[in-house]
Design goal:
It contains eight helices and five strands; from the N terminus they run H-H-E-H-H-E-H-E-H-H-E-E-H. The protein is mostly helical and 166 residues long. It has a three-stranded antiparallel sheet. A two-stranded antiparallel sheet has the order 1-2. The radius of gyration is 27 Å and the shape is elongated. The chain starts with 6 loop residues before the first helix and ends with a helix.
Length: 166
């Protein structure tokens, strides 16, 4: 028995073969989100190496991570997900570029110290000082011979006075 013996069946078969494929817009949108994510994973930096990449010790990096300044590539809301925390290199490079935009410290000035030193002397929490520096609320300079977060220099005395008054 051939298909031609059943004309209704052959018409339905012909219609099913002529169906248009699903819209490629949905696939394109999905691809537009996934491809950058795969690229970011290929150059991702694990939490254990971020301190070296940013030029800071582990403690300030962990504080910036807890504060939300450093955003992981994948959120760490699940149980045990903190073990595989990685950061996009582009995100870290953007942060370092903002630090590099700070004006360079001209001469050796004893009034300016690293922001970690300012936090130790009672000027406030490191993460708050760092955020204020990046937003321009605290005047800061970049030390010419240092790199990364360690290069940020602030005047500690006014910060201590402001913190003591609040």
């Amino acid at each position: 028995m051939s298909v031609r013996a059943y004309p209704a069946f052959s018409r339905n078969l012909a219609k099913s073969r002529k169906r248009q494929p699903r819209s490629k817009v949905g696939k394109w949108c999905l691809r537009a989100r996934i491809v950058p994510l795969i690229d970011a994973f290929s150059t991702a930096i694990p939490l254990s190496e971020v301190s070296v990449y940013l030029g800071a010790s582990k403690s300030p990096v962990k504080r910036l991570y807890r504060n939300g300044t450093l955003q992981p590539l994948i959120s760490t809301t699940g149980r045990g997900s903190v073990r595989g925390v990685v950061f996009a290199r582009r995100h870290l490079d953007d942060l370092l570029a903002r630090v590099a935009e700070l004006p360079e410290l001209d001469a050796q000035n004893d009034d300016f110290h690293p922001i970690s030193y300012a936090g130790q002397r009672g000027a406030g929490h490191f993460e708050r000082i760092f955020a204020d520096v990046l937003e321009g609320r605290i005047m800061a300079f970049r030390h010419p011979s240092r790199t990364g977060i360690d290069a940020i220099q602030v005047d500690v005395k006014p910060l201590m006075q402001v913190n003591a008054s609040t």
